[in-house]
Design brief:
The chain is mainly beta and about 900 residues long. The chain has one helix and 78 strands. Strands 10, 12, 14, 16, 17 and 18 form a six-stranded mixed β-sheet that branches. Strands 33, 34, 37, 38 and 39 form a five-stranded antiparallel β-sheet that branches. Strand 23 and strand 24 form a beta hairpin.
Length: about 900
């Protein structure tokens, strides 16, 4: 069948191409010229970029027969595989023409994100630029999204299979925008790739290169560094000047006659706009010196040095002296010597800066021949026995000085130095040096001139601390702006306040009145101290304690026993400093009077047995913890009775208890055969145990004026203490002999009484601490009790469980167990030639914890026991065969 179908298709193809060949032959032989045959058109039903599992229907334009490149002969095919599809159509009118190929792509995943967009980031309107990306994996085509003012082929959103796009920028492009591209296929779209675009505005020129000075009538070159992004440069120049080379990065500017100073400005331009301007001031002359430095008075007949700071661009300096005076040195430099004549009045010293263009103006300084006082002596207030200094400022040289105190000219010597100088020094000021001082100054050109008076005041340190600090006595944490003050202290110029423990000064430091903020503190209050201050020192301090907390009260009267229904019982505490009131609480009674004070009166309830009296103190800030006392009526039951509990046969023993709160006495009771020798009524007694005493109790109760407590009881035995344990093999073999068992000696025991179970024979050692035992076929319990002159004590038992059986003298039969130790399952090997009817497990106390009746073993004679419910420890297991018992041990983990 397959061969027939294939042959039919082949015949059809041959027929199709045979018709096409015949048509060509007919055309060639007849010489006819046929019109060009239009190619068929393939119309897809949807996108031709497919994802896994998708397909597209490709439909050919109409004809009479079709042959697709994949062998199909229908007008429409379903394409689900990637490839290039072509259809050749016979239109029945002599045209047999192939179509253009239709490409179908197919993908399993969305496309890879496009690579970085390559192309300029800065562009201008009117420009066209090319942008490219690398081909993205799995991309069928790309979608470009362009910003406002940018298009490609007139479109702002472009779908293309190409990785290259040319973009036109128009006048609407403003810059600082983003273009993007994504890759597409039938499975979806990739992540977006963005590129930021900006207008390529021209850059402001960084510097204008030109001479520092441009002289009147001169021509000078001005230039800026060339910027490839700028198309032209526009220069602006001072009024009256002319330019050549406008539009270039270098121009020549000619400055007019009389030019002093102006600015040259340049901007860069391109298709995107104009840059910010770059400005350079272009002066003709160097600037004037900023100031002339030198003396200004008392100058007649002297030579003085005057200086200026260097001026940028100046090549020399021209100095001019007052009329009648001369420049004696330094002409042309920044420092010149001026010699003044002997009759100098008011005049000027002048200097001008000189550069390549010359000089234009000068700087001048007013000078005087006579003296003048530039700074007056000031008041001083030295501390006693310290140095004091008075200074007068008089510029110039050749000046005479005379200091005067209270109208009397001073002379050097003793306590005075510098009486004829500009600085007067009092070497060690004392009360006699207090007063008013002034200075007389003169020179050869002027009459004497008196300075202002300056007062000298002698200070002593402050000898006494400030008085008491006024203000609140209690402050809580968080209290703000509290006022504290002191009276003024004689001689003080300031006050030094110091807060402690979380207090801070909010205002007023240095004065007699402050405000204080109180913050958190771990102390019970805050300290504030203050000292008086003057130029000679600091006084001792005055301190104020501002309380925050108060102490827990202490009882001074506290009856600890009160009978039921008792009235008028007084409880009192010591007064707590700073407390405003006291909070009392009584359980088991009622406060009759005194609540809030340091003393209360209490009536106790008719049924009162025990209770408490508690009290706390409080102030504005805190309430203390309670101070409590326990109150009882009848005493509590005494604690444990200390003394021997065994082996008291025919002896005298001491018994004691700890004192019981509130007890005034104790009542002791002993058993038959015993008597109290001494101590009745106290916390300790001596007891005589006679030969008739066997076992009984010692009892004690506490008493006071309100009643008697319950008794405390101690069991006391005449015989020795119970033996802790029997030492020996608890799992011997049945029918074994000579098994050794023993106990550690017990204090007071004179012998030991051993008991055997049926079938066990005490072979030796009865009455001693060590015995030997012969066992029969049955197991059981061995017991022993200590014995003294008053009898036997309590029995101690050992459970004997056979783990093997002795038959004759050599055969040993035991139970096989595995694993051992075991965790959750225990496997038991049945004894050979035995039929097991019962399995039991016993713990080491002899308690049966597991029983399995009528068990059935596996084919291998092994029983599987679930032991999950057993607690960890050692166990005995017994297999009963009816006539025999087989035993062993195992450990449960």
């Amino acid at each position: 069948m397959k061969r027939i179908i294939k042959r039919s298709i082949l015949l059809s193809k041959n027929k199709f191409f045979g018709s096409f060949a015949a048509l060509l032959l007919l055309t060639a032989s007849s010489g006819l010229v046929l019109a060009q045959c239009p190619p068929p058109v393939i119309t897809p039903s949807g996108p031709t970029d497919l994802c896994s599992g998708q397909s597209v229907t490709l439909t050919s334009s109409a004809g009479v027969s079709y042959l697709w490149s994949n062998g199909a002969t229908t007008q429409a095919i379903v394409a689900s595989a990637a490839g290039s599809y072509v259809v050749t159509v016979d239109d029945g009118a002599g045209c047999i023409v192939p179509s253009d190929p239709t490409v179908v792509t197919k993908f399993a995943n969305i496309p890879q994100r496009p690579s970085t967009i390559v192309g300029p980031s800065k562009v201008c309107p009117g420009e066209t630029w090319r942008y490219t990306i690398n081909k993205a994996k799995r991309a069928a085509y790309y979608t470009w999204t362009l910003p406002t003012g940018a298009t490609s082929g007139g479109l702002s959103v472009v779908n293309t299979t190409d990785t290259i796009i040319d973009i036109d920028f128009d006048v609407n492009f403003l810059g600082a925008v983003t273009m993007s591209v994504i890759a597409n296929n039938g499975c979806g779209v990739s992540a977006v790739r963005n590129k930021s675009l900006y207008r390529r505005n021209p850059v402001k020129p960084t510097v204008i290169n030109s001479p520092d000075f441009t002289c009147p009538g001169g021509s000078y070159s001005f230039s800026v560094p060339f910027d490839p992004g700028s198309d032209t440069y526009t220069w602006t120049y001072p009024s009256g000047a002319s330019i050549s080379g406008q539009g270039n990065d270098t121009v020549m500017i000619t400055f007019p006659a009389g030019y002093v100073s102006g600015s040259v400005i340049v901007v860069a331009e391109n298709g995107c706009g104009t840059s910010n301007p770059k400005v350079k001031v272009s002066p003709a002359y160097a600037a004037n010196p900023d100031s002339i430095y030198g003396p200004t008075s008392g100058l007649c007949g002297t030579t003085q040095i005057y200086t200026v700071n260097p001026v940028v661009g100046a090549t020399s300096y021209t100095w001019t002296a007052p009329v009648g005076s001369n420049v004696s040195s330094g002409q042309g430099t920044t420092s010149a010597g001026i010699t003044f004549n002997g009759s100098l009045a008011n005049a000027y010293v002048k200097v001008a800066s000189v550069n390549v263009c010359g000089s234009k103006n000068n700087r001048k300084l007013l000078v005087k021949g006579g003296v003048s006082i530039s700074s007056q002596p000031a008041d001083v207030d030295p501390c006693r026995f310290t140095q004091a200094t008075l200074v007068i400022g008089v510029p110039g040289s050749g000046i005479s000085f005379q200091w005067v105190k209270d109208g009397v000219n001073l002379v050097n010597g003793g306590n005075i130095s510098g009486a004829d100088n500009d600085t007067l020094t009092i070497l060690s000021a004392d009360a006699a040096d207090a007063g008013y001082y002034y200075c007389i100054v003169s020179n050869s050109c002027s009459s004497p001139l008196n300075s202002d008076s300056a007062q000298v005041t002698i200070n002593d340190p402050i000898g006494t601390p400030p008085g008491a600090i006024s203000g609140i006595d209690v402050a809580c944490a968080g209290t703000l702006g509290q006022a504290f003050s002191i009276a003024p202290v004689a001689g003080a110029t300031s006050y030094l306040w110091t807060p402690y423990h979380g207090a801070t000064i909010a205002s007023g430091q240095g004065t007699t009145a402050i405000t204080v903020d109180f913050g958190p503190s771990t102390f019970s209050g805050y300290y504030i101290d203050v000292r008086a201050v003057n130029g000679c020192g600091v006084s001792d301090s005055t301190r104020k304690w501002v309380r925050r907390t108060v102490s827990v009260p202490d009882f001074n009267t506290v009856p600890t026993v009160a009978c039921a229904g008792q009235t008028g019982v007084v409880y009192a505490i010591d007064t707590v400093p700073g407390a405003l009131s006291y909070n009392w609480a009584v359980s088991g009674g009622n406060i009759v009077s005194g609540q809030g004070s340091t003393s209360i009166v209490v009536d106790f309830d008719p049924g009162f047995t025990t209770g408490t009296v508690c009290v706390s103190a409080t102030n504005q800030c805190v309430t203390t913890a309670d101070r409590c006392e326990n109150i009882i009526s009848t005493p509590a039951t005494p604690g444990s009775i200390q003394g021997p509990g065994n082996n008291v046969c025919n002896s005298t023993q001491a018994y004691t208890i700890n004192p019981v709160a509130g007890a005034t006495g104790y009542t002791w009771t002993v058993g038959t055969g015993a008597s109290i020798n001494s101590g009745q009524g106290s916390a300790s007694i001596s007891v005589n145990f006679g030969p008739g005493y066997v076992t009984d109790t010692v009892r004690v109760s506490a008493t006071n004026g309100c009643g008697t407590s319950p008794e405390k009881v101690k069991q006391v035995n005449a015989f020795p203490a119970k033996i802790p344990s029997i030492l020996g093999n608890a799992g011997p073999c049945a029918n074994s002999t000579g098994n050794a068992y023993s106990v550690n000696p017990v204090t007071g025991a004179t012998s030991y009484s051993w008991s055997m179970f049926p079938g066990a024979i005490l072979a030796g050692g009865q009455g001693t601490s060590a015995i030997t035992v012969d066992f029969g076929p049955n197991d059981g319990i061995i017991s022993v009790a200590p014995v003294n002159g008053c009898g036997a004590g309590y029995n101690t038992n050992l459970r004997i469980t056979f783990t093997c059986r002795i038959a004759g003298t050599s055969q040993i039969i035991s139970v096989g167990l595995f694993p051992n130790p075991a965790t959750d399952q225990l496997f038991v090997q049945q004894p050979a030639d035995e039929t097991v009817s019962r399995i039991s497990i016993t713990d080491m106390t002899g308690k049966t914890v597991y029983v399995l009746e009528h068990p059935v073993a596996g084919s291998d004679g092994i029983f599987n026991l679930d032991i999950n419910s057993l607690t960890p420890g050692m166990y005995l297991i017994e297999l009963n065969t009816g006539g025999n018992k087989f035993n062993s041990r195992f450990v449960k983990e």
